[in-house]
Design goal:
- The chain has about 250 residues and is α+β, with helices and mostly antiparallel strands.
- The chain is built from 7 helices and 10 strands.
- It is about 25% helix and about 20% strand.
- The radius of gyration is 19 Å and the shape is globular.
- Strand 3 and strand 4 form a beta hairpin.
- The chain has 2 domains: about 5-150 and about 210-245, no CATH class; about 155-205, no CATH class.
- Strands 1, 2, 3, 4, 5, 6, 7, 8, 9 and 10 form a 10-stranded antiparallel beta sheet that branches.
Length: about 250
C-alpha cells in the first residue's frame, strides 16, 4: 500500500471504498448536531459500525447518520444510505465551521467548507489549484504537501505500487476492448476466465473504486479535513460506539 492512499484503504476496510459521505462540524454536542440534521436527539441509538443497520430496514431513499465526537470541539458524521440534502448550512449555523466530502465509484465530489450557515470554499480535490466560493483560498494553508490531481501519473513508477497492478490494468483494458458488445456486462460469466488467479484481490479493489491517483486525492482530502479538525478519520474512531440517527 502506498502511504499516499492510506485513508482510502481505511475506508475500504470498512466497506466505504466505493461510496463515502462524511461531514464534520465544530460542535461537540452530538444531540445538538442531530437536531440540526433534522433528527430527534431522543431517537439516537449507540452502536458500532458493524451494527449500524441492525434491526432497520433502510430503503433507497432512507439515510442514517452515525454521529460521534472526534475531538474536544469537533463532531464527525458518516452518512449511510441516501443523504439527499445539503447539511452544511444548518450544521455551520451559529458561527460554526463545517466541512462535507463524499465520493462514489462514479466520481469524487469537491470538498465543501462552510462558516455560519454559508458556504465559503469549494475545493476541488481532483483538479490542482481549482477553488471556488466567496473565500476560495480559505483551506489552502491546510493543503500543504498534499496531492490533488486525478491525472497524475507519477504513481506508475512508485516502488510501493501494488504488485501486478500495471499488468492487471493492461489485461483489463484489452479485455474490455475485445468484449463482444457494449451490452455485455463485464463482471459476470466467463469474462474473467483468463485472468490470473493472483489478480483476484486487484479485481476486488477495482470494483470498489480503487485507482491510484484517485485514492491519493481522497486520502489527501481526508488529511486536509483532519488538519482542520485536529484529528483524521482513523480506526480507533471507526471501532468506537457512536450514535445512530435516522435523518
Amino acid at each position: 500500500m502506498r502511504r499516499s492512499e492510506r485513508l482510502w484503504y481505511l475506508a475500504y476496510r470498512y466497506r466505504m471504498g466505493a461510496s463515502f459521505h462524511g461531514a464534520w462540524v465544530e460542535d461537540p454536542d452530538v444531540g445538538d448536531v442531530a437536531t440540526r440534521l433534522g433528527a430527534d436527539p431522543a431517537s439516537g441509538v449507540g452502536c458500532r459500525w458493524a451494527d449500524l443497520r441492525s434491526g432497520l430496514d433502510i430503503d433507497e431513499n432512507g439515510c442514517l447518520a452515525w454521529v460521534g465526537r472526534l475531538t474536544e470541539n469537533w463532531t464527525q458524521i458518516i452518512f449511510v444510505g441516501n443523504p439527499d440534502f445539503e447539511p452544511l448550512p444548518d450544521l455551520s449555523s451559529g458561527n460554526r465551521r463545517a466541512l462535507c466530502f463524499s465520493w462514489t465509484v462514479n466520481g469524487v465530489d469537491d470538498l465543501y467548507y462552510a462558516v455560519d450557515g454559508r458556504c465559503r470554499t469549494v475545493f476541488s480535490v481532483t483538479r490542482p489549484g481549482v477553488r471556488g466560493g466567496p473565500d476560495p483560498h480559505a483551506l489552502d494553508s491546510y493543503a500543504s504537501g498534499l496531492q490533488f490531481d486525478a491525472q497524475d501519473s507519477s504513481w506508475e513508477s512508485d516502488p510501493d505500487l501494488l504488485p501486478g497492478w500495471m499488468e492487471y490494468c493492461a489485461w483489463e483494458e484489452r479485455r474490455l476492448e475485445e468484449a463482444p458488445s457494449e451490452g455485455d456486462y463485464a463482471g459476470t460469466g466467463d469474462d474473467y476466465e483468463g485472468m490470473r488467479p493472483e489478480w483476484g484481490h486487484l479485481l476486488e479493489l477495482a470494483v470498489n473504486g480503487y485507482n491510484p491517483p484517485i485514492a491519493t486525492c481522497i486520502t489527501s482530502a481526508l488529511i486536509l479535513v483532519g488538519r482542520v479538525t485536529g484529528r483524521e478519520l482513523d480506526e480507533a474512531w471507526l471501532e468506537g460506539v457512536h450514535t445512530r440517527f435516522r435523518v
